[in-house]
Fold:
Amino acid sequence: MSEEARALVIVASYHHLNTERLACAIAGILGAEVRGPGEVAPDELGGFGIVGFGSGIYDAKHHESLLRLAATLPPAQGRKAFIFSTNGMPIAVAGKALVAGNSANSHGELRGRLVTAGYEIVGEFGCAGFNTNSFLKLFGGINKGRPNDEDLEDAKEFARRLLN
Ligand SMILES: Cc1cc2nc3c(=O)[nH]c(=O)nc-3n(C[C@H](O)[C@H](O)[C@H](O)COP(=O)(O)O)c2cc1C
Structure:
């Protein structure tokens, strides 16, 4: 496969593996490998035409392991990247648009590091994820079952747009 056509999806997902499910849905459309941040050598990213970076949102940022990787990337010279995440904002109250907005706001730190490394960000995606952080576990958590089938379909549609 040519370098241009190769895709890689890097995901850090530990709370409920919510973002890993998103990563697999996106990777299925792109024909991409899925790896954790610790399974990627920064120097090898030049061998991929497009790289996705995603995790849950923890304290309004992506996972530390992903942010660390993004800080050590060699110059990307305009190669393509996309960003994705799941977050714990209550979708039943906030609705899809606000949850997506929460994602976009929380992508700032990672986005900045990728742009500094020279990536062109060609798309961003975020949706709700099951959240039992802190006191929420006392009530059984919020966003149960998320990402759900509809979220995964939205993620696949996002991936199809990336292909175009
Ligand atoms: C320690 C911790 C901090 C979190 N901080 C936030 C936050 O700042 N904003 C938010 O919307 N969700 C927050 N969440 C909820 C997660 O983003 C959400 O559950 C996500 O889907 C977890 O993804 P994962 O299962 O892939 O790890 C937090 C969860 C944990 C465990």
User: Anything to note?
Assistant: The pocket of flavin mononucleotide is lined by residues 13-19, 56-60, 86-89, 102, 129-131, 133 (CB under 6 Å). The chain has one domain: 3-163. The chain is about 35% helix and 20% strand.
